[in-house]
Structure formats: structure tokens, C-alpha cells
Amino acid sequence: MEHHISEIIHYFLTFLIILVLISVALLGKEINDINAFKNYVNTSIERHGGYTDQAELEVVNYSQKYYQDLFKINSVSQKGRVNYGQEINYVIQAYFPVAFFRESHFIVDFYGQASSRLRSE
Question: Is the pLDDT reported for residue 119 higher than 80?
Fold first, then answer.
């Protein structure tokens, strides 16, 4: 009888370890997506000469279309158009879902910086 109980516990622990490994792999993929999104935010800020309304709209649409609203710009050091070469600091707030628990998620902040590449007219 004890052998059967220990075998059941062994199967349960093996299954639990496999679930943890799968969830870590899925989390790694989600965290890797932040690099592509951060690159898009930098390009949009550089192209529009700052975090303008048009740049903000592009970033929001991109997040909705490709990442199902997992990433949002939480704060920006300067809104609107800025001078050429001026740096803009921003914070991306990422909502990572917990694998196998779709209703729960955790929030992580990622910091970024971009420079305006548009000359003033």
C-alpha cells in the first residue's frame, strides 16, 4: 500500500514540475516581447520628434494589435514635440498573465529612453 501512495505522489510531483517549467518558458517568451515593443516605442518617438499625440496613438494601436494590450506607456518625462537630440524617458508597464491562471497577472515596469530625431521647423 505504501508503494502505491509514494508512486502517486511521485507522479503528482512530476506533473507539478512539468507545469512549472512550461509556465517559466511561457513567461520567458512574454518577457522577450518587451524588447520588440520597446524598439517600436523608441522608433515612434524618434520619428515624431517626441511623444506626441500621433506617436501615442501609434504605440497604443501597436500594443493592441500585436500584444493584446499587454504593454502600456505608464509615464513619459516630456509629452509633445521636443528639440532635436533631446532625450525622452518613459516607463512601459507590462501585464504578464500567469500561465494556467488566466484571470491573474502581475505587473512589471520597464524603463526606456529615446531621443528626438526630428529637427524643429
Answer: no
Tell me the C-alpha distance between 70 and 80, whole Å: 24
Q: What is the reported pTM?
A: 0.78
Q: Greatest CA separation found in the chain? A: 84
CB 70 within 8 A of CB 105: no
Q: Name the pairing type of β-strands 87-98 and 71-76.
A: antiparallel
CA–CA dist 66, 112 (Å, integer) = 20
**Mean pLDDT, range 79-94, rounded to an integer:** 90
Dihedral of the alpha carbons of 59, 63, 64, 68, in degrees to the nearest 10: -170
Q: Tell me how far CA of residue 45 lies from CA of 32, 38, 56, 61, 104, in angstroms.
A: 21, 11, 9, 14, 32
Q: What is the pLDDT of residues 34-53, one digit of tens each?
A: 999 999 999 999 999 889 99
Q: Which residues contact 114 (CB under 8 A, 6 or more apart)?
A: 41, 42, 45, 46, 87, 88, 90
Q: ∠ at Cα 51 (45, 54), nearest 5°?
A: 90
